[in-house]
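Practice problem: predict the structure.
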Amino acid sequence: MSGILTILRKEWRCFIGSDRGIFIIYAVLIVSWSLMLAAPSNTTVQAGPLWLVFFSVVISANFSNTVFIAERVNGILEILLTSGLSRRDILYGKMLFVFGMSVGIGLFCAAVTPLWRLALYKEAASTLTGETLLLYCAAVFMNTACSAYLSVRMGNPRLLHLANLLLLGLLVTLHFVVSYYFTVPPFILPLALLFIGALATAAARRLYESEKILQPVVL
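Answer:
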């Protein structure tokens, strides 16, 4: 557990020490996505809770690029692997950081949405429910786990986030197609995302415990 906390502190210090432009990017993402979430149902912009679900890919992709890919490219990961920390602690610490930051930003985005609706459309009610936020958290977990796995498994990690987007899109599309013909409980999609995330986590752990993690990254 102490190893995971060490990785969390390290990733947090790297984040708060990032270039100012990074924080501007996240601010723009939060404002733009919360505006789309705030749009009433009678506008062409409103796409329902799916805006927030696919927002999970965008946010987790940004953090995963730094935590999983950049550190393999610049050699920092090799230093961590020889620092005495267990490989599982390194993996789980990085995943927990990406998950926590992505969920935190997503929840902040959801919290800002009612303010936009009140200011722009004079509507106090929010279209976001507890089920939507649970779905968002499940999507973040799947994206984080898949990023940890694919960052090592894929020969070209630049395609990692496209793969996450395609996988999430496939699952959401399949869920809606099945829901059109059958009655599907609302917890099925989050459960499917959590299940895939658990499989990806187990696969990532095996890769981190192998020497494949030390192979050169092709960009």
